[in-house]
Design a protein that fits this description.
six-stranded parallel beta sheet; 2 domains; Rossmann fold; single chain
């Protein structure tokens, strides 16, 4: 069993970007500027946004955090999005999800200008991705693809089963892995809550990407020997015995599944760090496009 160490690869990517940013500074050029909009005080969102801000500082990006109160109205948030769209100093930005229940997430994401949508959620960017055109690829699927490429995981002709059909991970990764190119050319089956023969499919899969958000869902008897496991799930499970009052786990019953796998991502330390690294890569791309 080989660990797919997302933390290590993410740090490599950040180091590569830092070199490019240092060259920009040396030539007196504008460095990339990433902004994040956070509404409310969701614990996981605060942690994630904080990590983004620290990563920006480490590699030399400019960063802006727009932290709005939980009771912010949809209208006020749309106004803030319009301001970020019009701000030439900012190359790209994200609106951290989930948003409070009184705000329509789709309406907000549609208002983000496609050229600054470094999360890759806007229909314009999603459509370009599906057509294999250059665009912003959603950061988590982008990170998975990069992890597969850098570990030279053979995907061509392999049967990949994706568990979960969200627009953020499941659907885009199923498209990307079925396209032409490195870490692609796979035969992909996209499964979801209505799939009736899930275990039959996972038992035959060469590669499994689980993006369900259900702790320890994928058991050892659901996979074959030598399978490649990409665990996208990350759930805080309450546990009074832990210092923080919870522990973090993925979709995969790691201790039981890992011995059967040829490669597997840990949680935490697998896909999560890659998501932030690829968000930074998208911001670098946004800056390049705006300069051109």
């Amino acid at each position: 069993m080989n660990l797919l160490d997302g933390k290590k690869i993410a740090n490599q990517i950040k180091d590569e970007i830092a070199v490019q940013v240092a060259e920009m500074k040396a030539h007196g050029e504008k460095v990339p500027h990433l902004a994040a909009v956070l509404v409310g005080n969701d614990g996981a969102s605060l942690t994630y946004v904080g990590s983004k801000v620290r990563s920006c500082k480490r590699i030399g990006f400019e960063s802006t955090l727009v932290h709005l109160p939980e009771e912010t109205s949809e209208e006020a948030l749309l106004q803030k999005v319009a301001e970020l769209n019009a701000n030439d100093a900012i190359d790209g930005y994200i609106v951290q999800l989930p948003l409070p229940k009184h705000i329509n997430e789709e309406k907000i994401l549609m208002a983000v200008h496609p050229d600054k949508d470094v999360d890759g959620f806007h229909p314009t960017n999603f459509g370009k991705m599906a057509l294999d055109m250059e665009t912003f690829i959603p950061a988590t699927p982008f990170g998975i693809m990069e992890l597969l490429r850098r570990y030279d995981i053979e995907t061509e002709g392999k049967h990949t089963v994706v568990i979960g059909r969200s627009h953020i991970v499941g659907r885009p990764i199923s498209i990307l892995m079925s396209q032409k190119g490195k870490a692609a050319n796979a035969t992909v089956t996209l499964t979801h809550s209505r799939t009736k023969n899930l275990e039959e499919l996972t038992q035959k899969a060469d590669i499994i990407v689980s993006a369900l958000g259900v702790p320890d869902f994928l058991k050892a008897d659901m996979v074959k020997e030598g399978v490649v496991i990409i665990d996208v799930g990350i759930t805080r499970v309450p546990d009074a015995t832990k210092e923080k009052g919870y522990y973090i786990t993925g979709d995969v019953d790691f201790d039981k599944v890992a011995p059967k796998a040829s490669h597997i991502t840990p949680v935490p330390g697998g896909v999560g760090p890659m998501t932030i690294a690829m968000l930074l890569k998208n911001t670098l791309l946004a800056r390049e496009r705006r300069q051109n």
